[in-house]
Amino acid sequence: MNIPQLKQVLTDPDEFITNSQLKTLALEVLELVPLPGIEGSPLDSVDILEVVLRAAVGTTSVNGVTTNTEDTPNREPVMDWLHTLNKEPMLDAVNDILATLTMSVLDRSRSRTVCLDFMDNPFHGYPDDETEFRRMQVRDGTTKCHRYCTAFVIAQGKPLTLAVEPVDGDDSAADAVERVLARVELYPFEINRILMDRAAYVGEVIGVLRAVAPPVFPVKTGKATLREKLSVNASYMAEETICEGKEHEQTFPMAVHITYQNGDRGKSGVKATGYAAYGLEDRTPPQVARIYTDRSRIEKSYEKFREARALTTTPSPTIRLFYVGVGFLLEQLWIVIQWAVLAAPRRGGRALPVEFTFGDAFLHGIEGVLDDELGWKEKHRTNGVGLPAGCDHGLG
């Protein structure tokens, strides 16, 4: 994809990068997402995307932006434009941009470990189609959520997002994983293994994962024979079968890893964790556990992504998906700029700048520039009267 201003910054940076440049780069990336728009409208896609970008960096809504600015369209025309988004071309574009950003800072010659995950975003509302959302444990006052299957790679300490796919209410986990891996397989590097959480402990999902690369994931402990294998005091390698006698039967090498909880999180005693360890039969259980711990870094990525997610009450799943895509794109852009332009070169890897944080530096910097350009209101008309007669303010 052609991203000329970002290319210039990455290959020949000035002594400093300004907040205005960060805003320009963010818009350049977002403009690659196709937004058909409304024929004959006096607006253009940049007008709309500036509002969306301001909503994302401020974790607010389109209505919050248009209400509090002087130089933006009203909410209605902005939302009318956003309703012209076409889900599949938009999703393809988001994933293509993620791939372009990833490969701008990734060594193409090395094989990679890919991490997969399912991410839930709580959903409040009443969609037109009940199959749009999924069910989760109660969070933020709801059991409904929009679910996304994501793929990451950890490189030079950076959790880079490789692909994002929505998981509709009637989607199976295996179908979602297959779609995400189909996108990841387009990358120009070899996948040496896949790390996933316990959602992988399904025979059909394991089959999809194994078709691409050896998977590693923790097992669930509901099966009696499995609980027996985990009732030990020393680490060892074993073998386990899932879906025995059924269509998706899978037999896998299992690493039983023993740790001791010395008051960690109020717990103590022996803890046994079983890992499906495809391709790691020659490793020890502690080595398998250490390989799997790389996956924990993606939780930090989710925390940052949520700092750049625009709020909305729209029932449109396409617009909601677009806001999710914007959040991931902004985080990815920050990672690329941070590592390529701001990190200090040194032996053994670059030293990331601690002051260039995602929220306070990157997002807030873009927010300040947009506030000036969009005419964020700095004063609000009062009633000129104050408290009504009879009120005792008690302020002395």
Furnish the topology, listing elements before pairings.
Elements: H1 4-11, H2 19-30, H3 45-57, H4 62-67, H5 75-82, H6 87-103, E1 112-122, E2 134-139, E3 142-155, E4 158-167, H7 173-184, E5 191-195, H8 203-210, E6 215-218, H9 224-229, E7 236-242, E8 250-262, E9 268-277, H10 285-293, H11 298-306, H12 317-342, H13 358-374
Parallel strand pairs: 1-5, 5-6
Antiparallel strand pairs: 1-3, 2-3, 3-4, 6-9, 7-8, 8-9
Helix pairs in contact: 2-12, 2-13, 3-13, 6-12, 7-8, 11-12
Descriptive account of the structure:
This is ISH3 family transposase. It is a single chain. This protein is of the alpha+beta class. It has one domain. About 40% of the residues lie in helices and about 20% in strands. The protein has 13 helices and nine strands. The protein has helices at about 5-10, 20-30, 45-55, 60-65, 75-80, 85-105, 175-185, 205-210, 225-230, 285-295, 300-305, 315-340, 360-375; strands at about 110-120, 135-140, 140-155, 160-165, 190-195, 215-220, 235-240, 250-260, 270-275. Strands 1, 2, 3, 4, 5, 6, 7, 8 and 9 form a nine-stranded mixed sheet that branches. Strand 2 and strand 3 (about 140-155) form a beta hairpin. Helix 7 runs parallel beside helix 8 (about 205-210). The longest helix has 26 residues, at about 315-340. It is globular, with a radius of gyration of 24 Å. The model has no long low-confidence stretch (mean pLDDT about 90).
